[in-house]
Amino acid sequence: MTDRSDAADAADETPSIAPDELSERLQSSDPMTVLDVRDRDEFERWHLTGDGIEAVQIPHMKVVQAQATGDVTDLVTDLEEPILAVCGHGEASAHAVDLLRDAGLDAANLAGGMDAWADLYRVRELDVDAPARVLQYDRPSSGCLAYAIYSGGEAAVIDPLRAFADRYDADATDRDAALTYAIDTHVHADHVSGVRTLADRTDATAVVPDGATERGLTFDAMTVGDAAERSSASPASHTRQDAVDELRIGDVTLTVLATPGHTTESISLRLEGGDSPILFTGDTLFLEGVGRPDLERGDDGAAAAAGQLYETLRTRLLEHPDETTVAPGHYSDAAEPRDDGTYAARLGTLRDRLDALSMDDAAFVAHATSELPPRPSNYDRIVAANLGLEDVDADTAFELELGPNNCAVAD
């Protein structure tokens, strides 16, 4: 019997592509067939998607059976080349690739499998007009985006992922910066937040929207809110008198904007200091749509939340000038990256691109509550973990957040 180490050695010798190369291919929409040899339930939960990709699931057991009967070619006769084979760790798919190549097909293996794909975390610098460096962290497997702002020897991370907490810390150390804040724009439903982990491991202060306390927050954190909302008489206000409305990072300031709708406590953050502001919009506004309104309050509360989101967009975000840079918290296959690979756009471009931003309130609510994608996998447990209501270890957290984010209503 071949043991696991022998299988891994064989996988290393099989023609393969690394996860970062796969990311480049997905961004360029190069056509390929993805042969997924995991079991059906794993495939349906999460598989590779994108323009140019045709995903086909054939369990590894069928490949083994076809090898035994000499019918491998018949099994894959309809697959268009080139073929990328994937599995959990890259070993079963390597076996499939060897058989495909023996049959004369152009096939390669995803090195390390879907686990390695989930571990890929890329960082690029945003081209912004501010006395600060802004780095965008991109997890291609889920479309989750996080940001680090560096100015005057200090740094803050917005929407950090727990799985990559060490990365933010190491990057700040490499840049001789003190990590001062770890900030969440809302209670995330698609990934386990890294704010507590960073606060525990570094001198960073955990920062959450003030409204998170009303959702059941159980851990100590600085709460932030919108000064305009605090001074209003709105019954929807979640901002207490003691909530901070600005965060200073070196030579720049982050101003808190209340942007409810996706969730009741959602905030956006405006980076001041340059001629053109930058809006970190979390899950409120994306390059390809707006935040879905049903995750916190369910289907029954989705219409009211969508109405709140409409007001948020109209009175809090669209009032900014067209040259404002929108830096979202996620992207999907429908989002177009910039030439440098980053996901950001001018607000004026989004005004022209997204029909949702020019709809009246009734049309917007109908649009935002119809044909919603499936809810993120395990979103209820992820929310509980992010509020501190459930403790999950690192391995469990990794498993909970695998798959697409599904937090947007596509335009």
UniProtKB/TrEMBL annotation:
Residues in Rhodanese domain copies? 28-126
User: Which CDD domains does its entry note?
Assistant: POD-like_MBL-fold (cd07724), RHOD (cd00158)
Q: Where is this region: Disordered?
A: 1-30
Keywords of the record, alphabetical order, are: Hydrolase, Metal-binding
One biological process term in Gene Ontology = hydrogen sulfide metabolic process
Q: Name one GO molecular function term.
A: metal ion binding
Among the Pfam families in the record, one is Lactamase_B
> Superkingdom, according to UniProt?
Archaea
Its name, as the record gives it, is MBL fold metallo-hydrolase
